[in-house]
Design a protein that fits this description.
362 residues; single chain; 7-stranded mixed sheet; 20 strands
Length: 362
């Protein structure tokens, strides 16, 4: 039995763990969070990624939990409506599509149900040492273990990538925006309807989830790269950048200040010449983050994990990694381009359709 360590219990890591455990691998997943992460935004499952969730045996359950938006509005900084649609939303595209939108925490919760997977929360990888027949891994909480393969599925700020490939700044392309995401009560009274706002270099969206009992809110602003900062400083910065914007933004800022679950980060992409080094390989955002602006990060994670698992079952690690890159790179390139095609809004429907199906799972 081959054994694998996956760093990151998100969509990419959870998908890969489920697939490899099913095919007979001994699978360990480590994540620095104290437990499964909650919150986050609604995410899209599109194109060939629909086949992956069906292969996982989770397609029907995920579709049952999809968001049920009737449409969207766009307002300016004073709350004046600029645009409305009952045919599509900026987050999920056409409402009559087979693609679907679902909360990230619902997807992760399903993936973590995988039998036969050892999950270790509250720990992280601090050292990787190549040995004759494996990788010796050191952990923050102490001790070490040896694995046949180590997978970095630990996101934009991947510790595995830093240890195996080098500093994050060598591979990051900043896209000029920052986003904050948090849940709050549905004090706007929205019913299956998104409302976006835009004012100068700021903007955001509020939309209801959980049978319209809760809002998921995204607030954003344009900026050059900023230094790392703690959560209280992040919240102060957002309040400063969006101060003076009208509509319901002051109330959203008050809700943000009180939010216990909160995410803030730059919109950025990761570009590497290779995704593997020895017995270490990257999947999802750790290897090829497209950013939330692409609308395809979840699909890239699902498809990348599927292809990597498929190739690891077919060959030794070096041949598997080469085949994985050969198959995934054209798909990644098209999907990363979605975030840069139109910086002021969503990519064209033609580009999205071409990108989301540009790979075969065979």
């Amino acid at each position: 039995m081959r054994n694998v360590l996956i760093s990151g219990a998100g969509v990419a890591g959870g998908t890969l763990a489920r697939l490899l455990a099913r095919s007979g691998w001994a699978v360990t997943v480590v994540d620095r969070a104290p437990g499964p992460r909650t919150g986050g935004q609604a995410i899209d499952v599109r194109g060939v990624a629909l086949d992956v969730v069906d292969e996982l045996g989770l397609g029907d359950r995920m579709r049952a939990l999809r968001t049920r938006m009737r449409g969207m509005s766009l307002v300016d900084g004073d709350g004046h409506e600029l645009f409305r649609s009952e045919e599509h939303t900026f987050t999920s595209g056409r409402l009559d599509s087979a693609d679907f939108e679902i909360l990230r925490d619902d997807v992760v919760a399903m993936l973590l149900e995988a039998p036969g997977v050892e999950y270790v929360f509250g720990d992280s990888i601090t050292a990787l040492t190549d040995e004759a027949h494996g990788v010796r891994v050191g952990f923050e909480r102490g001790g070490s273990r040896t694995f046949d393969v180590v997978v970095g599925a630990d996101g934009l700020h991947s510790a595995v990538r830093r240890l195996a490939f080098g500093p994050e700044e060598d591979f990051t392309r900043h896209l000029g925006q920052y986003l904050a995401i948090f849940p709050t009560a549905n004090f706007l009274g929205l019913e299956d309807w998104q409302v976006w706002f835009r004012h100068e270099h700021t903007g955001g969206v509020a939309y209801p989830v959980r049978d319209n009992t809760e809002l998921r809110v995204t607030l954003g602003f344009g900026s050059e790269p900023l230094p790392r900062m703690a959560v209280p400083e992040q919240k102060r910065l957002i309040a400063e950048r969006l101060g003076g914007v009208g509509w319901e933004v002051p109330k959203l800022l008050e809700a943000m200040a009180a939010a216990d679950v909160f995410y803030f980060d730059a919109m950025a992409q990761i570009h590497l010449d290779r995704w593997s080094a020895g017995r270490v390989v990257l999947v999802g955002d750790a290897g090829y983050c497209a950013s939330a602006l692409s609308g395809q990060g979840t699909s890239l994670a699902l498809v990348g994990a599927y292809v990597l698992a498929q190739e690891l079952d077919r060959a030794t690690h070096d041949a598997a990694f080469a085949a994985y890159e050969r198959r995934m790179r054209p798909f990644v390139a098209l999907n990363q381009a979605l975030a840069t095609e139109n910086p002021e809004g969503p990519a064209s429907e033609e580009s999205v359709e071409r990108a989301k199906n540009a790979i075969s799972l065979a």
